[in-house]
Amino acid sequence: MIEDKLAKAKAKLMLEHPYFGSITSTLEISKNDDIESFVSDGNSFEYNDEYLAELSVDEIEFALANSAMHHALKHKNRINQREDWL
């Protein structure tokens, strides 16, 4: 069920927002029940199964787009010194 919602959300992003959809398609997506909701470092998207089960496809689409923005804005590269200009 969660996999279906994730697939639908990714497909919606590809159709409605191709830039974010392309980035999202490169994310490593995995289940992690040790977290409360979801986390992303721009390269991976980890989610709590129970949390995502309660979300709509649109809300999951938002979470994936948020992860794509972490990648697009190079947040991982900007951690400590924050000198990596875009």
What topology emerges from the helices and strands here?
Layout: H1 2-16, H2 18-24, E1 28-31, E2 38-40, E3 44-47, H3 49-54, H4 57-72
Parallel strand pairs: 1-3
Antiparallel strand pairs: 2-3
Helix pairs in contact: 1-2, 1-4, 2-4
Can you walk me through this structure?
This protein is of the alpha+beta class. Helices cover 51% and strands 13% of the residues. It contains 4 helices and 3 strands. Strands 1-3-2 form a 3-stranded mixed sheet. A hairpin with a 3-residue loop joins strand 2 and strand 3.
Features:
single chain; 86 residues; alpha+beta; 3-stranded mixed β-sheet; 3 strands; globular
List low-confidence stretches.
none
In whole angstroms, the N-to-C terminal distance is: 38 Å
List SSEs in N-to-C order: HHEEEHH
What average pLDDT do the residues reach?
Answer: 85
The radius of gyration computed from the alpha-carbon positions, rounded to a whole number of angstroms, is 13 Å
What kind of sheet is the major sheet?
Answer: 3 strands, mixed
Strand content: 5-15%
Question: Helix proportion of residues, in percent?
Answer: 40-55%
Major sheet: arrangement of strands: 1-3-2
